[in-house]
């Protein structure tokens, strides 16, 4: 895949994936069109050498893998991990608020979101809805309103003279989005709005809504930014970017070596769920694939945890260690933390540097300032659960956890090329 095609397809992937469920559905389509076979955890598996397979859990996490043509107990498995979720505003179970003729929805903040950028944006709504059909069966469907249906207006500066110096955001009272104006005797029910959307979008008739997991998102599409298109700006770059890079690398491989991509949900809230990185999903898939030889396979394996890194901000350069401020468009970032917030060690970092250098591609290193706390990734969790040598790496970005984030337009393709080489490497350990 060429650089221009790669970035254009990336923009399309981001625009089609407003929620983890949509991201996994988009990935599934690409895997299906590339000849990968779906597996169901409830069924027996009969895996064949040289084939591609994928497993989905909860609709929001996915493991895709190529079995390769070599014995996993001797060759190991080349693994890449990412996560499908991003900080956002999720609709509460009983959300409807009626205030002075406005109909609003109560929301819960998911993950460590930057809240101020959510004001004064055109918002839509998407996610999974569970409903009872006319046959008494429980069904799931994805919905995406696609158009602007909500807005969170800022309080005018005339009513808050300290807005530019001392404004804070109360998630309970300040964030309910406005959906429409309604008369005083209005009885609009949120469930009825969802039933109408299910019919319009999916052609299904829901007798009643049984549950939902819905998120607001910014309708502004992903695109190039800058006088010379040096940057890409989008929502959910953290971490749909890594999901896309890992998937394209897996699809690009010859299939000779055993290779795997895992994209977990719930990383932004700690990963402790059935489909999160602290859960058993990946380990279960490896057990069913490698069987009694799983432990030997792990000893020959390596995991690359791909999650975006903090690029140096030109207005806040003092927030980085003076020798470890990654620049946009200067290559992917090897993330190091000796307190194990990142799983990188000297050997796993060396493997990446060696592959990158062989391809003539750039790389950087990030260490958080010693007087600041460090975030984390699925890397340490996966390393601890599996006992696999792990590297934490990521594309440098600005605006992390904002409603709109920015990366360099060269870095994702660079990581894609190195991960493709990693997947096809005859020997890792």
From TrEMBL:
<dbReference type="GO" id="GO:0008270">
    <property type="term" value="F:zinc ion binding"/>
</dbReference>
<keyword id="KW-0862">Zinc</keyword>
<keyword id="KW-0479">Metal-binding</keyword>
<keyword id="KW-0482">Metalloprotease</keyword>
<dbReference type="GO" id="GO:0004177">
    <property type="term" value="F:aminopeptidase activity"/>
</dbReference>
<keyword id="KW-0378">Hydrolase</keyword>
<dbReference type="InterPro" id="IPR023358">
    <property type="entry name" value="Peptidase_M18_dom2"/>
</dbReference>
<dbReference type="GO" id="GO:0005737">
    <property type="term" value="C:cytoplasm"/>
</dbReference>
<dbReference type="GO" id="GO:0006508">
    <property type="term" value="P:proteolysis"/>
</dbReference>
<dbReference type="InterPro" id="IPR001948">
    <property type="entry name" value="Peptidase_M18"/>
</dbReference>
<keyword id="KW-0031">Aminopeptidase</keyword>
<keyword id="KW-0645">Protease</keyword>
<protein>
    <recommendedName>
        <fullName>M18 family aminopeptidase</fullName>
        <ecNumber>3.4.11.-</ecNumber>
    </recommendedName>
</protein>
<comment type="similarity">
    <text>Belongs to the peptidase M18 family.</text>
</comment>
<dbReference type="GO" id="GO:0008237">
    <property type="term" value="F:metallopeptidase activity"/>
</dbReference>
<dbReference type="Pfam" id="PF02127">
    <property type="entry name" value="Peptidase_M18"/>
</dbReference>
């Amino acid at each position: 895949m060429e650089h221009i095609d790669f970035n254009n397809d990336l923009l399309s992937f981001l625009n089609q994936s407003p929620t983890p469920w949509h991201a996994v559905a988009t990935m599934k389509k690409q895997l299906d069109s590339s000849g990968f076979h779906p597996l169901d955890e409830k069924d027996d598996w009969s895996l064949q050498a040289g084939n591609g397979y994928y497993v989905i859990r909860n609709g929001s996490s996915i493991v895709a893998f190529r079995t390769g043509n070599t014995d996993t107990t001797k060759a190991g498995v080349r693994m890449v991990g990412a996560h499908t979720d991003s900080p956002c505003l999720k609709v509460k179970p009983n959300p409807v608020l009626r205030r002075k003729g406005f109909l609003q929805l109560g929301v819960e903040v998911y993950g460590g979101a930057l809240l101020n950028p959510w004001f004064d944006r055109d918002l839509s709504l998407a996610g999974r809805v569970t409903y009872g059909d006319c046959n008494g069966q429980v069904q799931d469907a994805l919905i995406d309103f696609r158009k602007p249906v909500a807005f969170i207006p800022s309080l005018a500066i005339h009513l808050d003279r300290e807005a530019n110096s001392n404004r804070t955001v109360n998630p309970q009272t300040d964030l309910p989005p406005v959906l429409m104006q309604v008369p005083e005797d209005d009885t609009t029910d949120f469930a009825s709005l969802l039933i109408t959307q299910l019919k319009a979008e999916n052609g299904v008739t829901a007798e009643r809504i049984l549950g939902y997991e819905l998120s607001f998102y910014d309708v502004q599409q992903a695109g190039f930014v800058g006088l010379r298109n040096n940057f890409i700006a989008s929502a959910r770059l953290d971490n749909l970017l890594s999901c896309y890079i890992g998937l394209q690398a897996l699809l690009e491989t010859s299939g000779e070596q055993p290779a795997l991509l895992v994209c977990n949900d719930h990383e932004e809230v700690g990963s402790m769920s059935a489909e999160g990185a602290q859960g058993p999903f990946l380990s279960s898939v490896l057990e069913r694939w490698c069987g009694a030889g799983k432990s030997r396979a792990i000893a020959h394996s390596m995991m690359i945890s791909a999650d975006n890194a903090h690029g140096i901000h030109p207005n806040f350069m003092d927030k980085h260690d003076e020798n470890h401020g990654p620049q946009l468009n200067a290559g992917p970032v090897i993330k190091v933390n000796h307190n194990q917030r990142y799983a990188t060690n000297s050997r796993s970092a060396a493997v990446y540097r060696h592959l990158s250098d062989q391809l003539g591609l750039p790389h950087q290193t990030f260490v958080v300032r010693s007087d600041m706390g460090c975030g984390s990734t699925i890397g340490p969790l996966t390393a601890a659960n599996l006992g696999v040598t792990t590297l934490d790496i990521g594309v440098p970005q600005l605006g992390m956890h904002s409603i709109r984030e920015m990366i360099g337009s060269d870095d994702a393709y660079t990581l894609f090329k190195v991960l493709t080489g990693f997947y096809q490497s005859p020997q890792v350990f």
